[in-house]
Amino acid sequence: MSNSPQVRVAVVQAAPVLFNLEGTLERVASWTARAASTGARLVLFPEAFIPAYPRGLGFGFIVGSRSDAGRRLWQLYNEQSVEIPGPAIERLGGIARAHGVFLSIGVIERDRLTRGTLYCTQLYFGPEGALLAKHRKLKPTGSERLIWGEGDGSTLSTVDTPFGRLGGLICWENYMPLARAAMYAKGVDIYLAPTADSRDTWQATMRHIGNEGRCFVLGCNQFVTRDMYPPEVLREEALPAETPHVMSRGGSVIISPFGEVLAGPLWGEEGVLTADLDLGMLTRARLDFDPCGHYGRPDIFRLEVDERERPGATFLRQEAPGDATSSPPVRGR
Q1: What's the whole-model pTM score?
Q2: Catalytic residue (one of 109, 120, 134, 137)
């Protein structure tokens, strides 16, 4: 019989106060308190929770032109997004610290330098309140590419905890085989997969990753209805007439390293999923399959991951006469 340690984890399926940073931070505080009250030591929120995943909106894009209303809508989205560092980061760190949890949450991150590029980013906070890591989505999907920039390899992040290594990918990044392989090679034990995909096929993806990566998987989505969109958004762009009342039905789920469902999926409502993870299962699952260990074939296959930061510009300073030391580059970010 196994005496393996366990850890309780929680997945929050909820909606933000759409396009409202301060209102959404209040919701994060409330939902984190609820999740922590169950004894969870890790709390996961969905993709783009702050300030919103702008489902159903086009931001005035037509091939070859953009509308003034779309630009105003994007300005509103931009203004309610998160800068790192900044007051919202301090607030989120305080929420994690108040409840003594590891907190991971999806935000829309505004570039501090240009203020003209947004990234879909997942943040990792420790129980002391520090921001431990962030991951910028490498490849926005479809029309997301119109409003979000692309991350680089420098934020393929993992976080070590007393109960294993956290890491993961955002939404359809999880369909990128090489991105998944990179995370497996980093030794991820608890794989976080925040998403905006509420299709049945997403459940198959979550179960596959658990079984393929021999890791626990926490899939997390929002529950959003049409009437949650604020009037100031709809004044700039109406939702399509065929938009259903329930725009995202959820589907949050917790999966074992054997691809088995431990909790969920949760459909059609807000709520918190919890599960007690038997950490010894990680070792037992890797007896016969370890994707980057004994089941890998590095003599045949090789994956090279470039984790260098790719700033928009690098400025090299002129050395002063007689200065024997080189000046560090000043990065344009």
Answers
A1: 0.92
A2: 137
